[in-house]
Amino acid sequence: MPVIAVAHPLVRHKVGLLREADISTKKFRELTGEVARLLAYEATSDFPLEKVTINCWSGPTEVDQIAGRKVTVVPILRAGLGMLDGVLDMIPNAKISVVGLARDHETLQPVHYFEKFVGQLDQRTALIVDPMLATAGSMIATIDLLKRRGCKDIRALVMVAAPEGIAALEKAHPDVRCWTAAVDSHLNEDGYIIPGLGDAGDKIFGTKDETTR
Ligand SMILES: O=P(O)(O)OC[C@H]1O[C@H](OP(=O)(O)OP(=O)(O)O)[C@H](O)[C@@H]1O
Ligand SMILES: O=c1cc[nH]c(=O)[nH]1
Ligand SMILES: [Mg+2]
C-alpha cells in the first residue's frame, strides 16, 4: 500500500488545528513541525537496528543503533521547508537535498526552478517532505529526479493528500510509500485540496493570498 494514512490521535488532532481558517503563521509553522516529527517517526519504523557495545555507567553494555543508514531529507520548495526542521529533529545526521518546484496556477503543472542533491543517492534513503499532495505532479517530478540519480529507497511525507493525487502517485511510482496525516475529500476547480489547509506555502512563509486561505 504506497499511501499510508497515519491514524495516530496526536496526528489527527494536530491536522484539525491546522485547518482553522484564521490560524497565525506562527501556529501553522509550529504545528507543521510537530506533524513532520510524527510522520518521520512513522516512516522510519522499519529502519534496521544493529547491536553495538558501549561503555555504560555500569560497564560494557550492548545497545541498539540504526544500522549504517544514510538518509537525505528532500524538501520541495517552498512549503516543504516548513517540515524540514521537524524531520531533522528526529534524524539529526541526515543530509539535505533541495528541489524547487512551483505549480503553474493555470495548468497545475510543476515548473522546475532549482535542484541541489547530495551525493551517493544510490546508497541513501530519501525522505521527501511537502505538506500538500494535490494532483501529485510536484511529488512525481521530485521522485523522477531522485530515481534518475539512482535513488532506490524513496519515501514521501505529506500532511494532507487528495484522492486524485494518491491515485496519480500510486500509478506513476507504485514502489514509493507515502505517509500522510490526512486523506481529504477532493480537489476544487483551482487544484486546491478540499477541505485542505489552503495554500501551505503562503501560510508558512506569511505571504497569505486572500483568495486561497
Ligand atoms: O500536488 P500538486 O498539484 O503538485 O500540488 C502540490 C504542490 O503545490 C504546493 O506548492 P506550490 O507550487 O504552491 O509552491 P510553494 O510551496 O512555493 O508555495 C505544495 O507545497 C506542493 O509542492
Ligand atoms: O491545497 C493545496 C494544493 C496545492 N498547494 C497548496 O498549498 N494547497
Ligand atoms: Mg503554494
UniProtKB/TrEMBL annotation:
Required co-factors: Mg(2+)
Matching entries from InterPro entries are given as: PRTase-like, PRTase_dom, Upp_B, UPRT, UPRTase/APRTase
The terms under GO molecular function for this entry are:
GTP binding; magnesium ion binding; uracil phosphoribosyltransferase activity
User: Which keywords label this protein?
Assistant: Allosteric enzyme, Glycosyltransferase, GTP-binding, Magnesium, Nucleotide-binding, Transferase
Which positions in this protein are listed as binding uracil? 193, 198-200
Q: Which positions does UniProt annotate for 5-phospho-alpha-D-ribose 1-diphosphate binding?
A: 78, 103, 130-138, 199
Q: What cellular-component terms does GO give this entry? A: cytoplasm
**GO annotation, biological process:** UMP salvage; uracil salvage
Instruction: Give the record's family classification.
Output: Belongs to the UPRTase family.
The protein's name in its UniProt record: Uracil phosphoribosyltransferase
Organism from which the protein derives: Ideonella dechloratans
